[in-house]
Amino acid sequence: RASYNNHWGVPLTLANLRPESTFAVAELGMNHAGEISALTRMARPHIAVITAIAPAHLANFADTSSIADAKCEIFEGLEPGGIAVVNADTLHADRLREGARRLAASVISFGADAAADIRLLALEPAADGSRARVSIAGRQLALRFAAPGQHWAMNSLAVLAVVQALGLDLDHAALRLAGVQPGAGRGATREIDLGKRTIRLLDESYNANPASMLAALDVLGQQAGRRVAVLGDMLELGDTAPELHAGLSTAIEAASIDQVFLAGPMMRYLDAALPAAQRGDWAEDSKSLAPLVLEALAHGDVVLVKGSLGSAMRHVIEALDQAAAEVARSADAPSPRSVVGG
Fold first, then answer.
1. Which residues contact 44 (CB under 8 A, 6 or more apart)?
2. Average of pLDDT values for 249-275?
């Protein structure tokens, strides 16, 4: 139903399964070692997927190899004959394969790596989606994705790996992938009418880590118009947080982003790393930043809003929606009538 991925959400998902259900998809999340181990034993998956390893939750892990080991716990709950699906391109891909082989009956890999079972051969990115050519099961498929960004293409390869593992129709799945749209807060794109200004919003406000932030900035860089990034703190990064926040300046430069607005104490490090021409405003939190963003936007701007869930970047989205609602109400209001006596 949703991102119910913790010690409450996974059992809630399982308890609400309908008896007639054919498939169930559950997300198993963690920010400490041992958490996925408990969840996977509840879910007892027939297929277990690891989409990527990234420097997230480093406050609770020594390094990314420890994160990889914690994610490999998902294979502990596999049913007999269970299949593991792993990313061949990600950090510690060999570690994932080894962890999977110990516990899975078979392993399917995906990615651009030459050894991947489901291999991305070519990708043509565009502002409103992308096209790809994929090698799978001894043949090639041409795919189209409605969501822009290489990360969506990679996630789609993971989907195709599951379809293959289940023995379902790959061609039908490829057609259905073309209609998949990003959800609210996870890359959804829409136009917002602010009266004399209309902007295009890339809503990535649900969550963030260094890898997903780089992916979102890359998508922003593919857009036509003045590019504006509104970014909030990435949380749970431990001692590496200042460096990882400041390091986003390289991706911002590569994406030719015109102006950057920042919220949160960690984003001060990025603010200091940016050239003066790119700096918009910095604020202590997203609520304080929202009116500054609203005032600075111009007609035709493309605006990315992204940050960790705890940074509450939804406040910026809410401010934009409220301003648009006021414009709409004003347009619907009857014109004043004047009475002239003589």
1. 77, 78, 79
2. 98
